[in-house]
Amino acid sequence: MGVVIERVSFRIGGRTILDDVSAAIPTGSVTGLLGPNGAGKSTLLRLIAGLHTPTTGRITLDDAPLATLGRRETARRIALLEQNASPTIDLLVREVVLLGRIPYRTGIFGGFDGAGDLRIVAESLAQVGGTELADRNWGSLSGGEQQRVQIARALAQRPSLLLLDEPTNHLDIGGQLGLLAQVRDLGLTAVLALHDLNLAAAYCDQILLLSDGRLAAAGAPAEVLVPSVIAAVYGVDSFVVPHPRGGHPSLLFAPPAPPVRESG
Amino acid sequence: MRAVTGSAAGRTRPAASARRNARFGLWLALALASLVLVSALAVTIGPAPVSLTDVLGSLAAHLGFPHSGTVPVLTDAIVWQLRLPRVLTAAFVGAGLALSGAVMQSVTRNPLADPYLLGLSSGASLGAVCVVILGVGVALPLAAFAGALAALVATLSIARVGGTITPGRAVLAGLAIAQLGAAGTSFVIFWAAKGDSYREILNWLLGSLAGSSWGTVLIAGSALLLAGTGLVLAASRLDAFAFGDTAAASLGVDVNRTRWALLGLVALLTGAMVAVSGAIGFVGLILPHLVRGLSGPGHRRLLPLVAVSGAVFLVIADTLARTVFDPRELPVGIITALIGVPVFIALIKSRKSGTWV
């Protein structure tokens, strides 16, 4: 159950973006997708969201191959949030969250703001502690508030799987910790592309580490985030210390040490 | 705790939604009432005096309703043959252009998108003059549609750099295509050189409703019915574009098919409108921005209201165009530009720096 990624490769224009990636994401777990820029994190998220089809291999969600689900059914099960998305027109927060009900629109006129939809919008906002934001303009929100509202929009899709592409971008440290704690508390299966290894270590149940389109390592943070793996993927030295609160791995980085030379 | 907040909020939402629906209904009713009133008044205004009673009498006579008193034959001809077709054409063209602008702005995520600014109108003009002047054997609206579509594809391909189209680049590309279309239109008219070329060029490039007849009512009306219905049916999918293509796709929308289907309908609508009235600018740009404040950004409310408002706007603008310098007539595009350009400037100024190009 959950998401199963089976030997997935993705090539576009002769370039291999993902190469033979296999992984399992158990239901209810929070998975951190790590890797240097260009490693293929966003592409893998889009494949899991069903927006692209793997060149080879397949992805299943709760035993159903993504390829067999229609667009709408996919949208009812999987919510993807891109980084830094912003509307061109000034929407109210409530209207932004309401967009999450589009996959459930009914009839030829496609209404998606019935009483049931509005109730779900209110509940979704409440889930991220954003009830009082409902009547604010999107443009007037802080970065952290915008992210929370985006997550509420994703929740309004009532998904079983939540995919977030660098959700902590442009948030201050308080915002980052708050957001990830919130995502954890939702209890949904979630996959987060993250840059910050320490945030991933603190909030994720498992880590998928991508390097150059391949899966370099997978497992619990304490297994994956070790100096040898980090040196191989990121090319930096690192030291792991247990976090004073919680004991999860906490990383300190240093530029690679210069090679030791014989003195002559 | 969460469940409590959720249900408490849930109780207040339907009330808020009902209020919003009621407010929207009120605005739509108001807009429709002004359309009827403005149109009726517009028919009475002109060189020959016509009373509102004459207008109603003439209408009743032609539509076969019982009516009292008779309308003088000449007055009846002015109402039924001249002014009514013109007012109706203006209303349909205004509705079509405003609708086109609203849809383009959403689908291209560009608040400056408008059939005129992105070159569709002048492409359509070129297509239309090829038929009217050169006698190319295609139906006029079809040729204008082909011109609009070609201009649209050209503008978007030029503006597309590295897979993305920024609002600023789209307008610049539209400028180039619009200039090319205008030059082509002028060239075709000069080349054929019959009658008053300058006036004819002005009418095609700035727009004029002077050539209105029941034929133009039919063309503009059926295009509005056909394309307008399609656009309104697609309204909820348009909402999904608010956060961009990926967001729309992850909400279950087939982004490419939807975008091109909608832009195709916009080209059809613009083509038909330009075929009967030339390239009238700024209606599609300003009306959506003005109306969004009243309807909210949701397209199921925005589109009907924007269409009716566009109709009211162009009926007023055209009445001004034919009366201000009476007996001479201004191209109606001069009036719409006088109102539209300040709005355009305000839009540019209101944007945060760096978001255009």
Automatic annotation (TrEMBL), chain A:
Pfam families: ABC_tran. SMART domains: AAA. Residues 3-237 form the ABC transporter domain. One of its GO terms (molecular function) is ATP binding. The keyword Ion transport does not apply. Keywords: ATP-binding, Nucleotide-binding. The keyword rRNA-binding does not apply. This is ABC transporter ATP-binding protein. It comes from Cryobacterium algoricola.
